[in-house]
Amino acid sequence: MSEHCVISADIGGTFTDVVLTRGDGRMHVAKQLTTPEAPEESVLEGVRRVLDEANVPASSIVRVVHGTTLAANAVIERKGARVAFVTTEGFGDLLRIGREARVEDDRYDLHFDPALPPLRRESIFEVRERMNARGEVIEPFDETGAREVALQISKREPEAIAICFLHSYANADHEERMEILLREIVPSARVIPSSRVHPEMREFDRASTTLFTAEVAPLMARYLAKLGEGLSGMGIDAPLQIMESSGGVMAASVAAERAVATLESGGAAGVMAAARFAEFYEKPRVISFDMGGTTAKAGVIHDGSPAVVRELHVGGRGSFGGRRAGTGMPIKTPTIDLAEVGAGGGSIAWLDPEGVLRVGPRSAGADPGPACYSRGGRAPTVTDANLVLGYLTPEGFASGSFDLDPDAAREALDEAIAKPLGTSVERAAWAIHIAANANMASAIHVVTVQRGLDPRDHTLVAFGGAGPMHVVGVANHFGIDHVIAPPQAGVASAIGMQSTDLTAEHGRTHLVAAEALDSDEASSLFSEVEQAARRKMGIEDDVEGLIVERLLDVRFVGQAHEVSIPVEDLTLLSTVPDRFRERYRELYGVAPKGRIEFAAIRVRLRLPVVRPPIVDDRDLASKTPGGHTRPAFFDSGKAVGTKVIRRGELGNGAEVAGPVIVEGPVDTTVVPPGWSMRVDEMGSLHLRRTN
User: Fold this and answer.
1) Which residue from 304, 434, 411 is spatially nearest to 359, judged by alpha carbons?
2) Domain region containing 94
3) Closest-CA residue to 468 (of 446, 491, 498, 448)
4) CA distance linking residue 111 with residue 100, whole number of Å
5) Does some domain include residue 282?
């Protein structure tokens, strides 16, 4: 038997999800605990499970797509590779000085501690050279001094070396000469010049992005090599692609050099899954709500597309899922506009010094995990609370991976929360549940209300193993009346990866008055940037179906930030200023009449993939669901007899009034009193408010 099958794998902080989709759209899924010290092992074990369940040969796999937290963890935990950083003489303290804003509680902290610099000073080296902002040489490149610097670097035996010379975006000649010297003298190290990573103005941002690319590149290369070997050992020789933060994928062969582009790969995949269902249901405005074991993420899709920003603030602080500029380290890479909070199934509940209940951001993770996992964890978590509330069946949790221990969950809640507060275990569990809902609602607030959008105009799509369990509570915060829990919602991020196109984006600073750029010069510049984007994608030759999008970054003279405007026809450059003013009015509600300038040339490439169809392989005939009843706790504080139904038993058109709990192999949907549920022809659950 030969089929064209696609495998996708999403590594989360608690669970690793693997999905095999056949050519006809039927899915086979595996959800299991992540192995933090060797994440490829959980992926490979999941792949073995879905291959066995599907009973298809490894040769049937035509594509493997993977999202990983490797880069994010390395950056946040400062566990990247050993690196050296080379910059222009006099700028060695750039990273230490940085750019920092005091936000939230830090504004009032008289003993405020600034963040540690991203790299120790002894790992930073200076070379005599200097370009100006027009790319003109002010100080010639000191070849002798540069060679001496390279020799000093070699003694430190770095795994990677980042080069960021002043204004190299305008003229990369000196960086290229330094790169040649380093490759000659330190051949074992990866050399990462900023002119290839991010050739755009703003020195600190470019330096930060280049440094973290160098830190993560060796780790990503080693990890992908192990993963590739494991897949080959199973007989899978299909292309391996890595999920990007922008909502696309890239070839594994270029992933090491673009590792920072994977920082939000899991969150981006969830939003892309929501976008696919928004398209299927013809919903113009959708909020993606993805709650896993460690974090919850929210994004917005309008007219089938999520908003994309070009800067991350890794490790930064802000307001409930938002990140403030000036906090953390900026990394310039296209990223879906997401808000994220540390509220997942594994989030730990605790009492602060004033006795106030808090949930997260610390997580029990996969090891030891929540108390009910019986793996040594003793701290109460959201999952423990949901088990006590009656929302979870102890047997066969996470697609049958293991059973849960209700007694351990009750003991953890009683000792840490209920007894200190003088309340019952059930009331403590309910308080944890609603506190988690409030935390997650704040993430949705960031991507809607703070963006000037009304959440009530949107449909909420719930993903992640815990998302459908909490989604109604989150919807109630905003008065959202319609919620969708798609089939296999617990592994939606992995499903979303299978529908993503191969993408790459490259930009280059070119600061010029709007009227000074003619079509011939623009054509030449766009051609150069497109070639760089093709190298990022790993495609040098013409490829059938490749979509090329050209953009100009435009701003008013005197402003610091830009708006990207598509340029379909270079002969119509004169229309760009008016289109920019109109877009500016849409974004900010005002339309200044100042002079306009172009700040950067940008090219996006997209190579569409064949998407597996969305199908549901259950018996879709309408039938009355069976199930049984068990007590569960809701807002009243008293146990309510609640119907429990297996998701596979719900036929097309089945409709049930809450309270009801719908159990799937990888997710659980809770429909409280005052809401009803209907099953559509795709097997999605539509939850609607009834009072």
Assistant:
1) 434
2) 75-220
3) 491
4) 15
5) no
